[in-house]
Amino acid sequence: MFARLFHAWEHWLAGRTTNRVVRGFEWGADWLDDRRGPAASPHDELRDWSARMVADSDRFFHAPATDSYELRGSALSFPSAFRTPHHENNTVHGLYFPAAGRAAGRRAVVVLPQWNADAGSHVALSRLIACAGISSLRLSLPYHDRRMPPELHRADYIVSANLGRTLQACRQAVLDARRAVHWLSRRGYERIGILGTSLGSCLAMLTAAHEPRIRVAALNHISPYFADVVWRGLSTAHVRAGLDGHIDLDSLRRLWLPISPQPYVARLRDTQVLLVYGRYDLSFPVDLSRRLVAQFGRCGVPHRAFVLPCGHYTTGIAPFSWLDGYVLVRFLARTL
């Protein structure tokens, strides 16, 4: 009975968004760097490129240092380490919330919001984290709010049926988060964590797996594979519509493996991790979330799991949003 209620509620909440666009399928091989000459097909080129990126993920997610940080009031900006054809997207924007108190100079968290988050999303959570004595830096994801090109109404370019662009836009988000961590470190923060929600959770996990300064990761809505969420999720049904007839799930999973948590779980053995998922989630199907929790256990990664008594969209509605915020902030306060 509860499952039917929450599933109907999730469908109703998802249906309130009416500006989703089904975009045509593209291999996106023109987005790939380090190409190795002609391939038998775009699929083969993308498959081989993705396999190389997973095998050398330290290079794939390497973020060169920069000194071009600018802080005006609470607004931080800096150049992205990955350049795209869209000028607006090449500057990273963040909101900095310094905490007060004796320990405030040592602890900080990078906050990555969900897909299609507006400029105000996760600001209240970031302020709550600061009230708990932990400074927070809330980042805008690639192609979101101020980073969105004028032809877009949604952040379609970070998750779409263009496979190569999706790979590189998500990679860009990780490089941006790493540069944010470097900025916090330069300001004297010694214990740094990361918190991500939905798409931001996947990107936060990738960042934590490749950024040695991160000691704690709070992952809010989880899956081992990027492709499976897009293929099966309620929120990404319009992206799936663009993929249908062009690629199957097994192939898509291999091609998008560089931006999936699964290959990198074992790299988090020195990180304290919180895994949060919703019992009635239709956007991050529950069986996928449970598979990732089990993978953490098999790899011996220290972690805690918490199951919210709601779905994906309903996580943002009180009282579930209050419970989610409490669980996330309590974990950060205790482990960071």
How do the strands and helices of this protein lay out in sequence?
Layout: H1 2-15, H2 42-55, H3 57-60, E1 70-72, E2 75-79, E3 91-97, E4 107-112, H4 123-131, E5 135-139, H5 163-186, E6 191-197, H6 199-210, E7 214-220, H7 226-232, H8 237-243, H9 249-255, E8 272-278, H10 286-298, E9 303-308, H11 320-335
Parallel strand pairs: 4-5, 4-6, 6-7, 7-8, 8-9
Antiparallel strand pairs: 1-2, 2-3, 3-5
Helix pairs in contact: 5-6, 7-9
Explain the overall architecture.
- Helix content is 38%, strand content 16%.
- The protein contains eleven helices and nine strands.
- Strands 1-2-3-5-4-6-7-8-9 form a nine-stranded mixed sheet, sandwiched between helices.
- The mean pLDDT is 95.
- 47% of the residues are buried.
- With 336 residues, the protein is of the alpha/beta class.
- Helix 5 crosses helix 6 (199-210) and helix 7 (226-232) packs antiparallel against helix 9 (249-255).
Give the termini separation: 39 Å
**Fraction of residues in β-strands:** 15-25%
Helix content: 25-40%
Number of helices: 11
Largest sheet: 9 strands, mixed
Please state the average pLDDT score. 95
* Class computed from helices, strands and strand pairing: alpha/beta
β-strand number: 9
